[in-house]
Structure formats: structure tokens, C-alpha cells
Fold:
Amino acid sequence: MMIHSGEIPYKCEECGYACNQCSTLKTHMRIHTGERPFKCEECGYTCKESSTLKQHMSIHSGERPYKCEECGKEFKLSGNLKTHMRIHTGERPYKCEECGYACNQSSDLKKHTRIHSGERSYKCEVCGKAFKQSGTLTTREDTYRKETV
Structure:
């Protein structure tokens, strides 16, 4: 009934987060407490939610239950299949408000917007030069490693 009424009776005392289910608040509180009650018996990985552990377990099982009907490619997560499907449909839901550039992944739009902002988040520890993309920094660091060998 709370869903229909819009009532949100559960509130986090730490940060003000509010929700309509006690169990949701309990899960949220793990952010603040650091509690990680779900543990992988194979490798010891721990996490805050059972759904995260279930996803993790596919690493060990190799299970890829989500299959693309177009090309047969298989995925561990349904969200990855959804993103993949944009290749086939041509959907480009992420658009740059400055120039109209469109892409099919939010991470691509984030990288693109650095063109306009000039943001250079990836700084080389050796020479101090900053780059817009992590891959460019990695290439620079590889160059330095080769020079020292």
C-alpha cells in the first residue's frame, strides 16, 4: 500500500536516504557500516547484497545466461545484453547537449564531453602531463617502462 500512497517511512539517520521498505533501508545501511555478509565460498569475495554475489558466481561457473538473438553473443548480465543490442538496433540514447554527438553507452558520452570541458583527469606520475582518457595515460606509462628496461 505504501507504494501506491507514496509514503516513504524509512529514513537513514546517517545521510537522509529514504525508502518505503525496511529491508531496503537495512541493505542501504551496509554502505555506512561496511558490513559485507555475503561471501563466495570459492574465492572469499564478500559483498553487501545477495544479487551481487549471484552475479559474482558467474565468474567461477562461466555461465552466460543472456544470449543475443541476432548474433548469438552471450552475456553474464542482462544489462550488458541490453547495451549490446544497441549495436543491432542503431539506438544511440546518449546525446551531447553541446554538439549533438550521440552514442550507445553512457561511458562513451562521458569521454566525449571531455572534448568540450577540457577536463584531463588522468595525470602521469613521472612527467606530470594530464590526459583526457585513461588509455592515453597507460600508453605514456608503458613508454616510460620500456625506457627503463
Summary: The longest strand covers residues 10-11. DSSP finds six helices and ten strands in the chain. The radius of gyration is 22 Å. The beta strands are 10-11, 18-19, 38-39, 46-47, 66-67, 74-75, 94-95, 102-103, 122-123, 130-131.
